[in-house]
Write a structure and sequence with these properties.
The chain is mainly beta and 336 residues long. The protein is built from one helix and 24 strands.
Length: 336
């Protein structure tokens, strides 16, 4: 077994002698971990059917959403959310979630962990909380389509409108999220999101999100600062663009960057009010995790993604681009 690697004071192009090679699927596709280290890095495609990252095997999960069919009455505390059914897969793990209440009724459900390996027969109910009568239906996001070197998240307008893939870990106060996505004009779409930043617990505010705007093909973040970054004309029409969104809590700094041939274009903004990680905690997402506007549910094709629980330096970002530029073309992905 390879020895543990200690990362310290590494240059952007550092070589790590003895660094472990990570096998992330049965297709025997081997990739060294990125330099600099991030907490998770995904190559997407048919050779990674479990959607596991190449560093520690963390798997993305299909989103779970709820429709409150009856609010009930008399709830003084949040009732327990209980799942049942969902098929007979022996690996089935139910979601965990928190109910939201207002004026004595249940108003929504926030997923804390999406679980896995259940089917569309999953049901949900509520117990405790001092009230009665609350009911809800549960809906599972459609499965993504796996291509040779990419993953396509289906169009959510057909019913599964929160069509993103959720991380198994929670958002953090400081974070950086990267995605390599296909830019197709002019339809809006959400590329990734930091879900706990929403202005409301139901997720209707949205924040930390990338969206390709229908007006002028802009990449933007949501809430607090309308950071519009024009997408280069060369990217609109089927090539893949690497984009990074990050937040630093010490000075409420939010940064949006995209890379073309290794050259960054960056927009910085100070968020007001500063980010607060809401309770209950939320996951991050590739695609649309919680945002409730039908115009951003469009299909999304992505080739790679990464997450770090810190604000990456420009040198770190460039290293991620160089890593993507080295491996994605061999997977048939035309990175700009």
């Amino acid at each position: 077994m390879a020895e543990d690697v200690v990362f310290s004071a590494l240059s952007v192009n550092a070589v790590l002698p003895g660094a472990p090679i990570i096998l992330f699927s049965e297709a025997a596709a081997l990739y060294p971990t990125p330099d600099p280290p991030v907490d998770a890095y995904w190559h997407f495609g048919a050779d990674n059917p479990t959607l596991a990252d190449i560093i520690s095997g963390q798997r993305l999960r299909r989103n779970v959403q709820h429709t409150i069919t009856a609010a009930g009455t008399g709830y003084t505390t949040r009732p327990t959310v209980v799942y049942a059914g969902g098929g007979s897969d022996p690996g089935k793990v139910y979601p965990t979630a928190t109910a939201l209440i207002a004026s004595g009724g249940v108003t929504g459900v926030v997923i804390q962990s999406p679980g896995h390996d259940y089917d569309d027969t999953l049901t949900v109910s509520f117990t405790g909380g001092g009230g009665t009568g609350a009911t809800a239906s549960v809906h599972i996001g459609a499965a993504p389509t796996l291509g040779a070197g990419t993953l396509t998240i289906p169009d959510g307008n057909s019913g599964a409108w929160r069509n993103g893939l959720l991380t198994p870990f929670d958002d953090s106060a400081d974070y950086s999220q990267m995605v390599v996505a296909k830019i197709v004009s002019p339809t809006s779409r959400v590329f990734m999101g930091s879900l706990s930043l929403s202005t409301t617990l139901t997720g209707s505010g949205g924040d930390g999100l990338f969206q390709l705007s229908v007006s002028g093909n802009n990449v933007r973040t949501m809430t607090g600062a309308a950071a519009l970054v024009p997408v280069p004309a060369a990217a609109v029409g089927g090539t893949f663009l690497m984009m990074v969104h990050k937040y630093r809590s010490s000075d409420a700094k939010r940064t949006v960057t995209y890379y073309v041939n290794g050259v960054p274009t960056t927009f910085d903004a100070t968020v007001s009010p500063a980010k607060t990680v809401s309770s209950p905690m939320r996951k991050l997402a590739f695609g649309n995790g919680y945002y409730q506007v039908a115009t951003v549910y469009s299909a999304l094709e992505i080739a790679a993604g990464a997450y770090a629980g810190r604000y990456l330096s420009p040198e770190d970002e460039l290293a991620l681009y160089e890593y993507a530029a080295e491996y994605l073309p061999a997977r048939g992905v035309p990175l700009l």
